[in-house]
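User: Hey, quick favor. My workstation is busy. Could you predict this chain's structure for me?
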Amino acid sequence: MEDKLDTLIKSVNDLKTSNNKLVSSINSLFDKVATLTNKINSHSTQLNTLSTELTSLTTKVVTLEANIASSNINSSALINDNLISEMIDRQSRRNNVLLFNLPEAPNDSTNTSSDLTSIQNILDFLNLKSKPNSVTRLGKPSSSNTTKPRPIKLHFLDQKDIFELFSCQNKLKSNSTWKDLRFSSDRTKQQQEYMSHLRQELLNRQSKGEQDLTIKYIKGTPKIINSKN
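Assistant: No problem, here it is.
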């Protein structure tokens, strides 16, 4: 009888032990489930944050693309406006010639009569039959005798007269009175800046040893070329 009781007690104890192990396993499983749930919730929060940031970034990209497109349109319009203005300015100057270093008459406030006489004498010396339609000193007169003479703007009705003038102006170097005179096209500001850049480039290349370089107009555009070619 006692043996059966001991066996029963042992079985009950074993059952309790097994039950405790089962409870412990279930509790451990619950802990793991809770940990996994927390991780899932954390990842879900991170995904929501990333989604919000992605939406914000997408909005910024769309806005940036719109701004770039608008800027390109405005830049294109500005370039077109500048190009049209430049073309109009060049067209208005195409029949003008500038004359530099012609002395001003001290007793003639406007210099008109003396300038007209001098210019006609110069054209006669160059054997040119052309005559400017108008002659104008540029800038305000100065009371100083040491001031460099103001340039003169000559307007011709025919561009052919201008080409003939440019083609023979080197003859002036043989005349002691007019050897320092120089005729030039009436350039726009953009043309002046380009010519200044071209002259600086010419000096830089010459300083590096390049020889026989000069600036020559090719189809109306000044370019640096080798004078021996």
